[in-house]
Amino acid sequence: MTTFHWDCKMGAVFCLIFVNIWQVVTGQIHYSMPEETEKGYLVGNIAKDLKLEIKELSHRGVHIFSSGRTQHFALNYKSGHMYSTERIDREEICGRVEKCLLDFEIIVGDSMKVYGVRVEITDINDNAPRFHSEKMKLKISESTPTGSLFPLYEAQDPDLGNNSLQGYKLSSNTHFSLNMETTVDGRQYAELLLEKPLDREKETDHNLVLTAYDGGIPLRTGTLQVHVIVLDANDNPPVFNQRIYEVCVEEDISIGSTVVTLKATDLDEGINKELKYSLMKITAKASQIFHLDSNTGEIILAGNLDYEDSTQYEMEAQVHDGGELFDKSKVVIFVTDVNDNAPEVIITSVINSVPENSPPGTAIALLNVRDQDSSNNAEVVCSVPNNLPFQLTTSYGSYYSLVTNRALDREQVTTYNITITATDHGTPSLSTSIIIPLLILDINDNPPLFPQSSYISYLIENNQRGASVFSLKANDPDWEENARIMYSIIKSQMADFPLSSLLSINSETGIIYALTAFDYEQFREINFLVKAQDGGSPSLSSNVSVTLFILDQNDNTPEILYPSVPTDGSTGVELAPHSSEPGYLVTKVVAVDADSGQNAWLSYQLLKATEPGLFSIGLHTGEIRTTRFFLDKDALRQSLVVLVKDNGQPPLSASVTVTVVLADSIPESLSDISSISAPADPQSDLPFYLVVAVAFVSCLFFIFLLVLLALRLRRWRNSQLYDSGSGNFSGVPVSQFVGISGVQAFLHSYCHDFSLTTDSQKSNFAFPKGTSSDILPSQQPCEIRDPFLSAEDTKRFNGDSDNIQVSCLCLWCKIEIML
Ligand SMILES: *[C@@H]1O[C@H](CO)[C@@H](O)[C@H](O)[C@H]1NC(C)=O
Ligand SMILES: *[C@@H]1O[C@H](CO)[C@@H](O)[C@H](O)[C@H]1NC(C)=O
Ligand SMILES: *[C@@H]1O[C@H](CO)[C@@H](O)[C@H](O)[C@H]1NC(C)=O
């Protein structure tokens, strides 16, 4: 801050004044004083220097004259000293003028004398160098080459010479130094020199201090804060944080998921670190599946991944910054398998039906099993339910054969739905099931079977012809033709009757019809076999035995065996002695009924008697006994009508007339008879016929006696060989025999009674022991089997020749009586 301008003007004024004063004064006084001294600084002794008396000073009107300017000095009139009236700043008064001279005059008024006074103000270092701003900002790009110069602010120091600015210093640093230059007018100025390249990425700014100093004593300095800001240059390429990105993704991740995030860094800043990602060397397919967000570097799934389609994708990733710099990286995406495919079961061949007799191991189907997954996920196990008679066998590779493993039976299961399940080993595992329907074809493996092993049926005799007798039903679990049953009667156990004339069977329905009206008295039971045969090929059959019992109906009237109905006109005569006691057994009516049971249960009753009350008849025995002693008035010949009735519904009956003659002996009886016969036979020529008859009968008797004797002897010998038994009845059903044996029993007991009564009357009547035979009971000899007989007696009767005599006598006697 100088006052050049002012100095020039003042100089011109001074010149004018000086010219005037020069004309007046002779000399000039010189003083010197430093600037910035305190007020009252003693500049010089004016009185002494002007050779003036101290006391004269005030009287002579001495004063300082300064042409229009500030009066810096004043006079002390008492001492004659001149002193400064104020602090004087040289820089203020003189600026950069080298010699700062203050000229003024001292005028002595009374003597009209002017004295020139020159005071030189000397410089002191009272000003420090100063920058016009304390801070300075410098922006330098990091790419600026070394040696570049950057101007700095200049410092100013108003002092002079050594007190003025001498130079600059820069604070210590690594990159910069000062370059000093001098202007044409000799001023020094400093420039900042870049000695070492800048790197924003290391240091973004540098703080320097520029110090300006002068040469005064003491040294004064001024400082400038230089803030160097390093500007970014795109000197760093972006760098991926991985040279290769390898990721594994499951094939089933959802669309929109982030597969991998690329990350690159760029040390630069601003636009230089604005990164853009891109994918290169990518297949068209992959570019549809993967989408790269160019700003974030995220690779996002945009399509469906399928391990089965492609297991890995490889591409190149690039990143570019705002400039031309870029980096490359490799991205490899491995697709891992997920069990997303269920196994497939493909039936390559199959049959729909198998016969039930197929042996185990018969192939039903050939299957191929596939799974599009890999490793464990593609390991497939096939199975069929254990409860089915099938199994899977591996044949070749992933081919399975479905075969039977047991015997099949259509009668148990006719169709199978074979479920084949294929399961893979993934987690979780997937499975597929298919159903193979299989029809089991029938084989005629079951014969028709009757529910019972034998059947019994009953049919009342005298049935209608064509009546259905019985129904049979056999079951055949086979199917259709194999279950169509034909019935037939195959065998009769009655060899002599052709069964086909008796019974027929409806071959379809199994109903048995009677072809004839059966007669219980002819057939009591019929045994036959019924065969059921199915329609299979070969056909199977079974048979069952059927017994048809004919039930009795009361269709037979009782038949009276004894006394026999006379065929030759004569009637049987029973003998009863006069002396008979009450209860004497006169005779026994013997009747049989061909029916059986109740229908053959006979009862006897007296219908009519000559002398009612004289005889009684046992209700069931048929024995006719006397009820009282005979009286003389009783007729010698008693006639009894006996009714024999069975117990059937309705009952059937027969009657017989029994003639009882009251006589003690045969001759008597004969005379009695003749006497009795007379009225009975009113014919006049009866005696003649009688004589002829007696003679004829006698002759006949003798012949008969001889024949009988011979017969008896033969039979007796035979009976010795094989004792009498049921053997002779072997051909006849026992039940048929019951009636006859019953009659025999009656006859035996009758004969026994008869012989006893004859014995008791000392009669020689006795029946020899005879064998049973098919001769009529009335003609049978009586068997004597009496507990009351002694062994001796029995012996006598058995095989004794006397016995035969007795027997003959008996017969003779009987004949006699009959006559
Ligand atoms: C200024 O300083 C220089 C060196 O410091 C010295 O040689 C010179 O004499 C000095 N000048 C004055 C006028 O003091
Ligand atoms: C087999 O499957 C068919 C069709 O689903 C069905 O009609 C039939 O009843 C099934 N048979 C068996 C034995 O389960
Ligand atoms: C009847 O069946 C049995 C076994 O069931 C058999 O032994 C017999 O031969 C068959 N009879 C006829 C006549 O077929």
TrEMBL record:
Location in or out of the cell: Membrane
One Pfam family recorded for the sequence: Cadherin_C_2
Ranges that cross the membrane: 686-711
Keywords: Calcium, Cell adhesion, Glycoprotein, Membrane, Repeat, Signal, Transmembrane, Transmembrane helix
Protein name per Swiss-Prot or TrEMBL: Protocadherin gamma-A12-like
The keyword Magnesium belongs to this UniProt entry's keyword annotation: no
Domain of life: Eukaryota
Species of origin: Gekko japonicus (Schlegel's Japanese gecko)
Domain named Cadherin: residues: 73-131, 132-240, 241-345, 353-450, 451-560, 577-681
Primary location recorded for the protein, binned into one broad class: membrane
Membrane-protein topology: Single-pass membrane protein
Cleavable signal peptide: 1-27
